[in-house]
# Entry
Amino acid sequence: MVENSARLRILIVDDEALIRWSMSETLIHAGYAVTEAGNGKEGFQRLADGPRPDVILLDYRLPDSNDLKLLETIRHVVPSSQVIVMTAYGTRAVKAGALTLGACRVVSKPIEIRDLAPLVHRAYESRPQ
Amino acid sequence: MSSNNFCAPQESASILAALLEKSDDAIIRADLDGVIIGWSPGASRLYGYRTEETIGAPVGMLIPEDKWDEFVRMLDQIRAGIAVNYHETVRRAKDGRLLNVLISILPVSDHTRRTVSALSIARDLTVLKRAESAHRASDAGWRAIFDSAVDGIIVIDAKGMIESFNAAAEQIFGFRADEVLGRSVNVLMPPPYCDEHDQYIASYLAGGPAKIIGIGREVTARRRNGEVFPARLAVGGASVDGQTRFTGIVHDLTERVEMERRLREQAALAKLGEMSAIVAHEVRNALAGVRGAVQVIGARLPEGSREAAVADEVVQRLDALTTIVKDMLLFAHLPEPKLEPMDVGQLVASTASFARNDPAFRDIRIDVLGSAQAILGDADLLRTVLLNLLTNSAQAIGVGAIRVSIGARETVCQIVVADDGPGVPPEIRGRLFTPFFTTKARGSGLGLATAKRIIEAHGGRLRVEFPAEGGTRAVVELPALTSAVG
# Structure
């Protein structure tokens, strides 16, 4: 359990249901408030519905969103949310592109479940004050 | 003419008349003083004099000045009753032309066997000489073409013995013509063709089906140094004066085949690249999902239970699959190295300590020795190479020590990863760098292929050695910083 994280809100955007489920289970278990989205459109809906997530775990490639398009939208709509981009196809160009567009971390899939809560916590801690 | 089996005595006169009339040879009869007493129509045709101009005239009018001495000697010989047989000399025609002739002069005797006159029979060689010289010229021309041909041209006889071997053939096969002329053409073929070739010829000459003659096809040939190479061979058969000969035109395909191989490899890589993009997303993503779910479920199972152990095992299997996908991605999309000055010793040390934390290296000791000057390299990519070499060694020995020695020669930094494992059987050593070739039960077969590409992208070289005393040495050579910059 990560300290002082009880009220932190996490949004997971990934089209792979098992990834969403395992991450969400792990983070809920760690004390976070988690919402999920299975594609870009749903992800955008969650942002519009509010409340603003503290950390967003965003899949690099979504069926209805061209690569990093959703990241651009997120930076625009909720600039203070920390975004961790997850990719199964972690080329250097992908990583560099995501960081340029404002992601705070780019991580390769599979993400070690045991490392997930600390990863999210560090991302939150590193937010611009 | 008294004793012959050609004609009866009463027929002699008419046959003689016919011979004199129709023969193209110049037939002249002269007395022993050299005065013409008989002149055939053939003589008129050759020398241009009419019969009536010559009877009673001296034979000397046909002799060029420089042949006068010879003529006097021949006349003496005839007077002595000795024939002149097939003597090549020169005569002058009425119009002054000099003619090459082949001449025979026979003494003619009377019933007392005394020589009374001479019969001279001369054949014009001028036309023959001209043809011969034209033939020689065309032979030289043919030889020039033969030797300037870009393709190898080899002529063999019906027994397969080499009769001609042009300059290009010397170039292609590494034999000088004088080393192969008269030898069987099968010295230019590797087994089994060299043993079967005699039979091919025999069967073709016996009317069997042509397998290559008049067709041409790709064959395997052998150079003097034993090297076997692909070639295009076109063979034509010809019969001259009843002698069968075969002419083979050989085009060395080594370069073309090599180029085709490279193109095929590039095409395969491009296809692999397309495929890997799909694999990356569909397979890797799905694997990540399954792995996460199994981990979460596993964490809820009673600690130490059989089910929890199975969940752990599933995760390990998934990790192995993920590694194969990762290897494929790296091989298909090898990034351009981002070269930065770096310390090889530090790279080796950090990679070794990373490996030591890997369960696969539980029973392995990694000793690092030596140091080297800085190089220009991509640390991420070089770490991948080192980790791959360490993993190969660890799998080879199972338990024991891997020695990594770093050394430097003037312009080259060398990293040697050595183990005392069982090595690799000689028959598969040549395939170690072939993509997808693996001897391991589990592995993508891309590790060494990728490592080699990474090192070569750094301008370096990677080779694997098998010392006589056993074990395996993987040798990485990278350009040292000084030479890379200079």
